[in-house]
Amino acid sequence: MNVMGECKMAEFEFGLPPESRMLSPDFTYGVATASFQIEGSTKADGRLQSIWDKFSATPGKVKNGDTGEPACDHYQRWQGDLDIVNNLKVDAYRFSIAWPRVMHEDGSTNQKGLDFYRKILDRLADNGIQPHVTLYHWDLPQYLEDRGGWLNRDIAFRFQDYADLVTRELGDQFHSCATINEPWCSAFLGYGYGVHAPGLNNIRFAKQAAHHLLLAHGLGMDVLRTNLPDVKSGIVLNMGPMTPKSERYDDFISAKIAEAGGNHWFIEPLIEGRYPHIVNRYEPDKTPLVLDGDMELISRPVDFIGINYYTRNISSYDQENFLKIHKNDTAEHTDIGWEIYPDGLRDLLVDLHRNYELPPLMVTENGAACADVLENDEVWDDQRCRYFDLHLNAVHQAIEQGVNITGYFAWSLLDNFEWAEGYEKRFGLVHVNYETQKRTLKESAKAFRRLMQTRKEQSEGSSFHATTNSQPLTSQQL
Ligand code: FCB
Fold first, then answer.
1. CA 236 to ligand 1: nearest atom
2. CB of 418 shorter than 6 A to ligand 1
3. What's residue 408's pLDDT?
4. What percent of the chain has pLDDT over 90?
5. Atom 10, ligand 1: which residue's CA is nearest?
6. Residue ranges per domain, the chain?
7. From the CA of 266, how far away is ligand 1's center (Å)?
8. CB-CB contact of 110 with 46 (8 Å)
9. At 8, is the pLDDT very low, low, confident or very high (cuts 50, 70, 90)?
């Protein structure tokens, strides 16, 4: 009973079918974070200013004037946070390295910054947890933005230098390495719609930035192959379906063109070395400048593609703006206003599988921002538990339909700085009190731990059968 005299809800169990491949020990489960969202200590040990420091300090850009301080104070509290990861019994931890922490403006190494990540990698190794490292999760050094940021082609080569430095210095302990997280968000939210750093508003800029992000990925892959021949290397893309509001042909065609602009614009160059023709036909004036050889670099083979999925959009054709987005009034939405639509994850994965010759996929982010209530040291985050349950089952269904998916990472380990939404929107499996920095496991975190336990028992059970069955029976047993 809680103080209101109400009964607590029962423990939440994720209901994957017992025969699911996702219950086998070779399916990877992890939790994810990103440097700027959790670290804080933005001036410690010679860290340079990033575009998010400047953007969040600009009045009106981030809700409630929130900034990267204190975030989760993870720069100081990393040990306790990694103990939590260990306590969840997951296989893997996905995190990102802050470019402004590890490299000085002249390109030399900031040893103190590197030491921080080395300690994290050591601790993960001690605990047997796989490190899945992202090189760029949006915290670009501000001095590079001052030279044009992702609009300046030179930045792709600067990224290559940074990727070279990090992988030479730290890469011996990586399990996987993603060059870039969600180039769509960096390019379109940052340079096209002005809602993320650096806050520019021009779709042509967004497309040029996107091209340079993909180019940086390709150049990065070259150094990753040299420096990390044994590490799985790839990229992480955010995607979601655009559902036409009606079956009318103009709603359908406009939705598909928008989907091509958001999803295929990124995956087609990576896999097939070209931008979708249909998007270029529709907006020829916004096609980015592509130089000879760029597409060969961008389409270097990758070992995996990470897919981040949260929701879908519903749209109709609009004569003035081409597309109008609609809210689905009959569906449940999370606290950030995103529709809960697990079928979208299954359909997206199956659709990608049918369209492309893909490397293995990992779901590198999936999660929900909920209006959590901390009461008696507990958070009964029923909506988040249901969200995870539905989406885990959507991944299971995609696997059943033939998609090669090797892992699933929950976003996020901790409540954290949710970009333009500041600290108000909470995505964590673990609640963070930003005044005291106290961490409290939510019910969803415990449900993940139970899932890991179920999987372990199931695989121990099956290996027990395998060994007993493989032994010849003795006469006594007979
Ligand atoms: C993704 C970002 C991640 C987080 C989630 C909610 O787009 O990669 O950092 O903010 O959204």
1. 8
2. yes
3. 99
4. 93
5. 418
6. 21-461
7. 17
8. yes
9. low
Distance 213 CA to ligand 1 centre (A): 17
Ligand 1 centroid distance, CA of 84 (Å): 21
pLDDT band for position 459 (50/70/90)?
A: confident
pTM above 0.85, yes or no: yes
pLDDT bucket at 223, cuts 50 / 70 / 90? very high
Ligand 1 centre from 139 Cα, in Å? Answer: 13
- Compute φ and ψ for 353, nearest 5 degrees: -60, -35
Of all atoms in ligand 1, which is nearest to the CA of residue 336? Answer: 6
What CATH number is given for 21-461 in this structure? 3.20.20.80
Q: What percent of the chain has pLDDT over 70?
A: 95
> Looking at residue 9, what is its pLDDT?
65
**Is the CB of residue 181 below 6 angstroms from any atom belonging to ligand 1?**
yes
Testing ligand 1's pocket by substitution, the residue of 63, 308, 414, 423 carrying the most ligand atoms inside 8 A of its CB is 308
Q: Whose Cα sits closest to atom 9 in ligand 1?
A: 34
Query: Can you tell me the mean pLDDT for 419-435?
Result: 98
